Amino acid sequence: MAMGVANLIGCAPGGAGWNRCVAFIPTTIQIIEKVGAGAMPGAVGGTIVPGTYDLTDAVVFGASSLLPSVPPETYVFAASGTYQGASLGYAAGTGTWSAHDTTLTFTPSCSCWKARGCGRGRTYSVWYSAGPAQVVTFETYVNGGTTMRTFTRRTRED
């Protein structure tokens, strides 16, 4: 059974605690970004199956350089259209998600960052592809180009 998003710790502005607005700790599995070879696959949309998804791969196309490390990251997608997301030691958020064509949109109701504390956050969108066991997102990369990040659905909920 997937974790729900109702058991939130709190989203009071300010204060410490990057993970105060989620009810779980993300995976601790660290990945290393890779440089993409050839043409980047295009986003095709698809149905996101409710469940817990861990970041398992990151490929960067067209960037001038890569980041030295990528924090472990997890998303919980509920069938009700709510989500929780967290990057270990960095940031976390909860809110609603929607998918239309090839665009996946997150509307946070609470976002907490290690460096800035908690607040509402801003709506943001990424291009995506989804299958029964994966969600792949495509977004503008910090150093130019595009990053393709693969999140794999857990086969059992911990």
Task: Report on this structure.
It contains no helices and ten strands. It has 158 residues and is mainly β. It has a single domain (34-38, 47-153), classed as Lipocalin. The protein is globular, with a radius of gyration of 15 Å. Mean pLDDT is 83; it is low at 1-9.
Overall CATH class: Mainly Beta
Structural class based on helices, strands and sheet pairing = mainly beta
Low-pLDDT segments, ≥5 res:
1-9
Strand order of the largest sheet: 2-3-4-5-6-8-9-10
Q: Please report the total strand number as a whole number.
A: 10
Under CATH, the topology can be stated as Lipocalin
The sequence of SSEs as H and E is: EEEEEEEEEE
Q: At CATH's second level, what is the architecture? A: Beta Barrel
What is the quaternary state of this protein? single chain
Number of folding domains? 1
Question: Quick one: biggest sheet?
Answer: 8 strands, antiparallel, barrel
In CATH, the homologous superfamily goes by the name Calycin beta-barrel core domain
